[in-house]
Amino acid sequence: MGKVYIGIDLGGTNIKIGLFDGDLHILKKTSVPTKADMGPDVVIGNMAEASLGLVADAGLKKSDIQAVGIGTPGPAAYSKGIIIKSTNMPTFKNVPIVQMLKDRLGAPIAFDNDANVACWGEYIAGAGKGVRDVVFFTLGTGIGGGVVCNGELVHGCAENGAELGHMIIYPDGRRCNCGQRGCVEAYASADSTARRAQEAVEQGRQSSLKKVLDKKGKITAKDVYEQVAAGDELAIEIAEGTAKALAITCVNMLHTTEPRRILFSGGMIAAGDILLEAINRHFQQQVWTLKKEDVEIRFATLGEDTGIVGAAALARHNYGPSK
Ligand SMILES: [Zn+2]
Questions:
Q1: What pTM value is reported for the model?
Q2: Distance from residue 265's CA to the centre of ligand 1 (Å)
Q3: I need a labelling partner for 62 at 20 to 30 A (CA). Which of 28, 38, 158, 260 fits?
Q4: Residue 25 CB contacts under 8 Å (≥ 6 apart), including other chains
Q5: What is the 174 CA–ligand 1 centroid distance (Å)?
Q6: What separation in Å is there between the alpha carbon of 67 and the centre of ligand 1?
Q7: Residue 267 C-alpha to ligand 1 middle, in angstroms?
Q8: Residue 6 dihedral angles phi and psi, to the nearest 5°
Q9: How far, in Å, is the centroid of ligand 1 from the Cα of 151?
């Protein structure tokens, strides 16, 4: 076997690690608890140890590692290899993660924002395969984004570009966690979808979601989509609001980088066709009529492996044999 790649997805709860061959086929994978409260030395030590464990399990040596990729939430100085701070890992402040990992694994490290990494994974090996221009959204607690333009990730002048969740779609609209008003994240993330439903029920709207709220004390996005399937009027209205917000964002992105494909990933896509059909329908209602657009709006396909596949793919892109 030739050289191998390691892809690491560093999250606040778990570190997912995959070992890949040169064609990005997965050889082995594992997941270890992050234990962020133990501090960066321990976390990065555990990460390196688990990575070397996968290499040994595959009958390989440390010197067989061609390169390593890692994705984490920002903010970070990616080209300097430093995590500036992390909301879900408070002990991580100005951590030179790239150098620390390089010292332990002896291979070059590709480092990027987790949404960019996931976008790159889908572009290389998932639903974005075969085209050169992709826009990617993750719909979770917030909304993350990534943009591939003419075969390269867009980073921006200070490496924090493609924050697609904070595009303002409704001026003076709902307050977003980022401090702006009217961001798409304030309408269409899993949390915002659930919150809009809960607010409506608390304001007295009749809905089968009231029973859910009374029983559990809160409403989730999953609850909303379950009630859409059951025909509940309020749930349908909320879900339509989510789809419309996402569709407006798609139109804005169409006119920004003209993607061939727009991809959605994250927990919300479990809603399935109800969500995808509604985004496509609203997109057709919102998009201009000057010319026919053949952009494809699809769900991502790599599922929970997106982060590790994307990190390994980025490692190969930056430090593969042709470079
Ligand atoms: Zn925002």
A1: 0.95
A2: 19
A3: 38
A4: none
A5: 10
A6: 34
A7: 19
A8: -115, 130
A9: 27
